[in-house]
Specification:
about 350 residues; alpha/beta; 9 strands; about 50% helix; globular
């Protein structure tokens, strides 16, 4: 009779979670621990040690940077291509972009490339100075912060974002030809609620008529689920520059994503006038889906990778998706208010 752990866990059962937590930048020991903790394979029937786990990972094509041992010459073509879309991104962002392309590259190699080929950009980033500001969040889904971004309206594109400040997750990042329509903004909110099946305790935004529908709509839903909230506003209006999480998100987007897209939009061959309805409508039909796909890729990478550690930040440093899915791992509370499908459809 075989011992209970004489059989190895089949790779077909655990390939998907290995890939998932690899994308979230977990090390081998942590991934193996999660596989066992969440019973992603039958631990009574199968066994799996760290050496066999690493063999499985390699079989899936997931190779660590030290093993891959890429040099500067190996990444030149990728860096040139990525710089078309991310001309101002730092080494950490470029490392993640290369990772998304299947190349695990050591930080020192990327830094060597930048110092060799981009000395002016390196000096520009070193001179950058940041101001420390405080923002408080009690836990996951305590508050969702919303904001609009108008700096691309000269191209006929208007952006809108919602961030959970505790996890740092982008709940949505959308582009359309306007971000001033209250019903459109509330539609973004309802789409997210329908997908997640829950709402936060409070929503937050700058004062402005475009946020009236979401303020009233969210308060109405909260009051419908909790009669003790009747007559209260479950939305915060923040004064200018005090709605910090979206401002931080816009700063990162302007640095890492938008410059390359602006270069494409500013191409002389992209010649149209916002004052010419046929030209502008054709532009919207072509540009908005393309721009949205770029934003989706940016948001996906942001939500699945952990932020850089900061000594003055007490919030969790893990990947936003992981903090939201498993708050207990970070000693955090989840304040989400669950809704069933019937309730959501009634709102629709």
């Amino acid at each position: 009779m075989h011992h209970a752990h004489s059989f190895l866990a089949p790779l077909t059962e655990i390939a998907a979670p290995i890939q998932k937590y690899w994308d979230r930048e977990y090390d081998d020991v942590k991934i193996l621990s999660i596989l066992k903790e969440e019973n992603l394979f039958d631990t009574e029937k199968y066994g799996l040690g760290i050496r066999k786990f690493r063999a499985y990972r390699t079989e899936l094509g997931l190779v660590r940077a030290r093993t891959a041992n890429f040099t500067v010459n190996d990444i030149v073509n990728d860096m040139i291509d990525l710089r078309q879309r991310h001309p101002h991104a730092g080494y950490l962002r470029m490392k993640r972009e290369l990772r998304a392309r299947g190349k695990e590259v050591k930080r020192s190699v990327i830094q060597e490339y930048m110092h060799r080929y981009e000395p002016d950009l390196v000096r520009r980033r070193i001179r950058r100075r940041l101001k420390c500001r405080r923002f408080w969040a009690a836990g996951v889904n305590d508050v969702w912060c919303l904001d609009q971004h108008d700096k691309l309206k000269r191209y006929g594109l208007a952006l809108h974002i919602c961030v959970d400040p505790f996890t740092g997750k982008f709940k949505w990042l959308r582009v359309w030809w306007t971000n001033s329509n209250p019903r459109l903004i509330f539609g973004y909110y309802l789409d997210r609620v329908k997908k997640d099946g829950y709402i936060p305790l409070v929503t937050q935004s700058d004062p402005g008529p475009e946020n009236f529908c979401i303020a009233k709509g969210h308060s109405f839903i909260r009051q419908s689920l909790d009669s003790q909230l009747q007559g209260t506003l479950q939305h915060r209006y923040m004064k200018e520059k005090n709605n910090l999480p979206p401002e931080i998100a816009w700063s990162g987007l302007r640095r890492d994503c938008v410059p390359g897209l602006e270069d494409i939009l500013a191409n002389p061959h992209v010649d149209y006038s916002c004052d010419n309805p046929p030209q502008y409508n054709v532009f919207k039909w072509v540009a908005i889906p393309w721009f949205q796909s770029e934003l989706d890729a940016y948001a996906k990478l942001h939500n699945s990778t952990k932020r850089r550690a900061q000594c003055n930040k007490i919030l969790p440093h893990g990947p936003p998706d992981d903090i939201e899915e498993h708050p207990h791992r970070y000693n955090a509370l989840d304040f989400k208010v669950s809704m069933n499908c019937t309730s959501i459809l009634e709102v629709y």
